[in-house]
From TrEMBL:
Pathway: Siderophore biosynthesis
Enzymatic reactions: L-lysine + NADPH + O2 = N(6)-hydroxy-L-lysine + NADP(+) + H2O
Alphabetic keyword roster: FAD, Flavoprotein, Monooxygenase, NADP, Oxidoreductase
Required co-factors: FAD
Protein name: L-lysine N6-monooxygenase MbtG
Family: Belongs to the lysine N(6)-hydroxylase/L-ornithine N(5)-oxygenase family.
EC class name: oxidoreductase
Gene source species: Microbispora corallina
Tree of life domain: Bacteria
Amino acid sequence: MKHRDVELLAIGAGPANLALAVALEELAPGGLATGSLVIEQAGTVAWQPGMLLPEAQSQVSFLKDLVTLRNPCSRFSFVNYLHAVGRLSEFINVGSLWPYRIEISDYLAWVADSLSRVRLEYNRRCTAVEPLRDAEGALTGWLTRLADGSTIRSRYLVMGIGRDVHVPEAFAALPARRVVHSTRYVQRIAELPKGVPYRVAVIGGGQSAAEMFDAVQRDLPGCQPTLVMRSIGLKTYENSKFTNELYFPSAVDAFFGARQEARRQILDEMHITNYSGLNPATLDKLYHALYLDRLTGKGRLRVVTMHDVTSAREDSDEVVLELTDRRTGETEELRCDLVLLGTGFVRAMPGLVRGLAGALGLEDVSVNRTYRLAVPGPATAACYLQGVNEATHGIADSLLSMQAVRAWEITADILADRAEGGPRSLAAVPSQAVAVPVPAN
């Protein structure tokens, strides 16, 4: 077993913590940046690797990269990446604000490789985080345990691990070889033999489900896909310029300071801007594919709306899904060979955060305006949560829109904390903050 100390440990090398690493290099190039470590459980940096489909585009402008909204002159910008790899002229000529998803992923890997002060280590899977206290009970740091048995002690901890994958209960008993969540689509489909006439059920009515419904027709050429959703049909995102202003970093202050009922209204009305919708190009492509399928009489494609999957079981060499019509209550069976889940992520705090909350004796998880976890008693250490604070910081919290400015705010808070020194209490939760209950494990 190995143990080491760092001043700041960031868990996860996704966009959130890469933006933080860049902010540390640019704003705190001395002791804090060189004393910081980012760990990533995978062997490389990739953005949504399970859905790196050839034609998929980002839904966010390239200007909302890891740095531009904080520092437009940064060498870590997406524009500088394009220049470095010799593709700037071609990208300009395409005339789009929205890069391909594979470009964003490559950009993130380029940023990771370009870090010169903050260290980044791969194949480091975190299994638990424990608080460290001195003899008087003051919180002094964090002990992070890794899967290889090693430990890392840090004064500052930043968790940018994303939310846990959501597998609906109806599918929990199915064998893993039968079920593919969207986060593993590319890897799992590549393992399957191509010429088999698979019957494929795709579950969900959002962008991920629609993309898999489209992609599987190419990836498994002889398949017969059925798209099953609870909604009345596929819908486009609501993306007016007025609602898009709620994705501005400047909108966070107004949301954080709003009353609970106002927050709920905003999140409810903004739901269709990010969830359960499709970009217009995907929607148009799917509709044309369905039209041609009907026109030619192939009957290969099927879309089932307003149905719940109420049970799923394996029967001999196939999967049997029970579908319940939300309009009539009647049920029917859908027999298939493979289930693709576009069911998103669990809305609760990730398991690693819940485990830390339990170790701290917290009944709920609360963060302040600068994303700092509220802990009881005096403390000379701090933990920050990235990408899981939609309830307190708004609809854009988990998206690329927020990365650059949020990294700036967290870095500034840490620098201020280091300058102040000495213990202080973080138990008091700001009156505007939301306490998120910690469910039992």
